């Protein structure tokens, strides 16, 4: 078939018309569509297609009207079909007849290639010498192309190469501007929301629109911080990631491209803030541009910051609710306490205890660090514990006491060297103020009895619960007071244990065997200590007012502990 014979159009006229079409618009799609029409008329072909290279793929960008619905949907790899062969070898190809029997062909049902008799294809050369794309023409049986069609295609491809390259640059520049504009809008939308669910919704929908991808997914570590689990997706909730993909996402530093079975491409960007891995953001499509990787990286960085901000807001909100809860318990405002407990996720109707923690003298400067460690230890004992760390103490609300709680709290206090008091168990909010006072009293007595740090239950305070609030200045300075002061002074100088021995002896109602067992000493050692106590203190234990003597011991313990802590 001679070029244009049926229409009486010369090759030079057609080429001039193509030149005119190339200068008619900067829009690449319009340019390509015009070229398809002119080539179709000039070759009197059944179909004309233009494929442009995108990475390692050749995607259909223009087609004759009968196949226009396939534009953007048909693509080949560089190693697929005659189109890929032309691009790979950078030379034209011509199949005169028996098209499907050529080994270079790959059958595409949508193109109805069983109807075609001849095929010609020519590469579109870039200025760099690489291939921009391929122009392909088909004719239906029984008509065949002749070599003149190939020559015409080669001239046409060379002629359109520069304008196509310029149009692609213009298209890329315009796309970058659009991307940056939409990226700025999405950034504002992300910054405007604070809740996790709102962030998920805005991000997945925004990325899908931004990149024009088929789907966007967001995956985050599970509660144990291990496996990634899907939390949001657009247009539908995502499924768990394939195990093979998850293995390659650990420690990912920046966005990268993955290939999935079926030809889908996946861009995945890590969500990292302050060195903490918060998850991954994925975009799924049949094709991406190189610049899409950078765009997804930018979005991922903003998402990570937004997630950390949301966590901070939630934590501060929870901390405020917990502090308000303790203040409401102290003030006896039941309705407020119940509301704050609900916000914090704690049921005050079930049995609970209140814990009061105070630092040792000298530890006030680093109290914030100590309190943080104590809080972590308390949560290991009771994960649902509510903690409020103040400037000089820590208050905590723990759920229903279980066996071993006392030992666990004692271990916490001993490990951190703090004084920990535990209230009586109770339910409801009516006696919240009393529970707070009980826990604080127990912590104060612990400071007096356990100078190295330890825990005491309010129920175990004995007479101390009646003396802890007695102003020391109002205590009588009688001979018992003076006797016990001499014993305290002696213990401090000699590192002895006379006061401990006396207190235990009085608590045991002067039963020597019981006292010796509780002190883990031999009865003879006990007798020697009691003799020394009587000589130093000027006492005759068999004839003294034992209750007054015991109260003097306890009051002096509280006074000395208060003085060591800087109190009155």
Kindly report the spatial arrangement of strands forming the biggest sheet.
3-2-1-6-5-4
Return the CATH architecture of the largest domain: 2-Layer Sandwich
Fourth-tier CATH superfamily name of the largest domain: GAF domain
Spans where pLDDT lies below 50 across 5 or more residues: 4-9
Instruction: Give me the Rg, rounded.
Output: 42 Å
Q: How does the major sheet shape up?
A: 6 strands, antiparallel
Looking at CATH, which topology of the largest domain would you report?
A: Beta-Lactamase
How many independent structural domains? Answer: 4
Give the overall average pLDDT: 83
Helix content: 40-55%
Q: Distance between termini?
A: 114 Å
**Tell me, what's the shape?**
rod-shaped
Q: Please count the beta strands (DSSP E, at least 2 residues each).
A: 16
Structural class: alpha+beta
Estimate what percentage of residues fall within beta strands: 15-25%
Total helical elements: 17
CATH class of the largest domain: Alpha Beta
């Amino acid at each position: 078939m001679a070029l244009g014979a049926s229409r009486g159009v010369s090759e030079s006229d057609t080429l001039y018309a193509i030149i005119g079409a190339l200068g008619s618009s900067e829009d690449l799609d319009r340019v390509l569509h015009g070229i398809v029409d002119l080539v179709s008329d000039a070759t009197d072909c059944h179909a004309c297609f233009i494929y442009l290279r995108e990475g390692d793929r050749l995607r259909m960008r223009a087609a004759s009207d009968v196949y226009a619905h396939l534009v953007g949907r048909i693509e080949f790899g560089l190693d697929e079909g005659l189109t890929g062969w032309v691009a790979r070898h950078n030379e034209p190809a011509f199949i005169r007849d028996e098209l499907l029997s050529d080994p270079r062909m790959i059958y595409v049902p949508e193109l109805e290639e069983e109807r075609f008799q001849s095929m010609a294809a020519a590469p579109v050369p870039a200025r760099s010498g690489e291939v921009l794309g391929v122009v392909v023409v088909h004719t239906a049986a029984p008509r065949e192309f002749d070599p003149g069609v190939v020559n015409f295609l080669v001239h046409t491809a060379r002629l359109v190469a520069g304008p196509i390259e310029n149009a692609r640059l213009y298209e890329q520049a315009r796309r970058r501007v659009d991307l940056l504009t939409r990226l700025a809008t999405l950034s504002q939308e992300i910054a405007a929301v604070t809740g996790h669910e709102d962030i998920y919704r805005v991000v997945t929908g925004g990325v899908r629109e931004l990149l024009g991808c088929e789907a966007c997914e967001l995956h985050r570590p599970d509660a144990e911080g291990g496996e990634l689990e899907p939390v949001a997706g657009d247009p539908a909730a995502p499924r768990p990631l394939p195990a093979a993909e998850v293995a390659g996402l650990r420690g990912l530093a920046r966005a990268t491209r993955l290939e999935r079975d079926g030809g889908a491409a996946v861009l995945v960007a890590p969500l990292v803030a302050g060195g903490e891995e918060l998850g991954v953001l994925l975009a799924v499509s049949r094709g991406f541009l190189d610049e899409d990787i950078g765009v997804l990286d930018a979005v991922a960085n903003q998402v990570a910051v937004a997630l950390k901000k949301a966590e901070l807001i939630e934590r501060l909100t929870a901390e405020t609710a917990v502090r308000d809860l303790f203040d409401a318990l102290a003030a006896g405002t039941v309705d407020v306490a119940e509301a704050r407990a609900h916000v914090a996720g704690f049921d005050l109707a079930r049995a609970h205890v209140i814990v009061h923690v105070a630092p040792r003298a000298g530890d006030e400067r680093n109290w914030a660090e100590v309190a943080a460690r104590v809080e972590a230890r308390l949560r290991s004992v009771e994960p649902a514990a509510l903690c409020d760390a103040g400037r000089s103490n820590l208050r905590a609300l723990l759920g229903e006491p279980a066996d071993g709680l006392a030992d666990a709290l004692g271990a916490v206090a001993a490990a951190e060297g703090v004084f920990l008091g535990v209230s009586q168990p109770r339910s409801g909010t009516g006696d919240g103020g009393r529970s707070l006072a009980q826990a604080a009293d127990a912590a104060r007595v612990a400071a007096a009895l356990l100078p190295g740090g330890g825990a005491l239950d309010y129920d175990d305070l004995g007479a101390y619960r009646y003396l802890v609030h007695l102003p020391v200045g109002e205590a009588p300075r009688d001979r018992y007071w003076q006797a016990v002061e001499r014993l305290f002074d002696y213990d401090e100088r000699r590192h002895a244990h006379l006061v401990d021995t006396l207190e235990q002896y009085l608590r045991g109602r002067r039963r020597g065997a019981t006292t010796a067992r509780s002190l883990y000493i031999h009865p003879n050692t006990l007798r020697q200590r009691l003799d020394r106590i009587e000589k130093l203190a000027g006492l005759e234990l068999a004839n003294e007012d034992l209750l007054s003597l015991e109260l003097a011991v306890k009051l002096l313990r509280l006074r000395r502990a208060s003085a060591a802590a800087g109190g009155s």
